[in-house]
Amino acid sequence: MLIERRPVYGLVLFLACLLMLSAVRNGYADRPVPLKIVAFGTSLTARGGWQPALETELATCLQKPVKIESVAKSGETSLWALTQIDRVVAEQPDIILIELYANDATLHRFVSLAQSRKNIGDILDQLQQRLPQARIIVMAMNPFSGLRGLIRPFVDSYVSAHEAEAQKRGLEFVDHRPNWERLTPDDLATAIPDGVHPLPDIASKIIAPELVKRIAGNNCGE
Predict the structure, then answer these.
(1) pLDDT by residue (tens digit) across 118-131?
(2) Which PROSITE patterns would you find in this protein's record (predicted)?
(3) Is 88 exposed, middle or buried, given 0-12, 13-18 or 19+ CB atoms closer than 10 A?
């Protein structure tokens, strides 16, 4: 005995159409997928305060939502960062922004230049392997001064080592220091009162536009 199935199929199709129509009416079908960014670093990220400005400016430029999550901790080095790769991967980011040299370069953290270079190389290798579609950008942040600068006498060598490891893997490197150094000495001292951590509002004005330019390229008007 044959069972008539057509009415059942028709009902299923009708319900599917209703669900699709409801989704369109509620805007779900038209909502763009957000661009997901992970900022991976030290206190220059954890306390940086530049992420909201980057979200806003990049979203305006690209005409799509942008969401930035931070995997960052004050006072930590690239040794700590090696233990945080699972957290970065779990976010499934489209872009990863990395700054991990600043505390490696402090004399009292005892992370040698060779060890720092090996660590960032291992971090980049793991991220490339586990997130092959992600765009990875290694960064140099602001200059240091005062006591915070004195305890980092070879910081430029650490920056160069991280840059070299990025370039070896065909990854991008963004150096924010020249933009900071365009400020007058007095303005720079005001912007970075403790010699290492910029005021968030000024960091936003210097770091966010540079990253928008790098990430969006010519897709954003001047």
Answers:
(1) 999 999 999 999 99
(2) PROKAR_LIPOPROTEIN (PS51257)
(3) buried
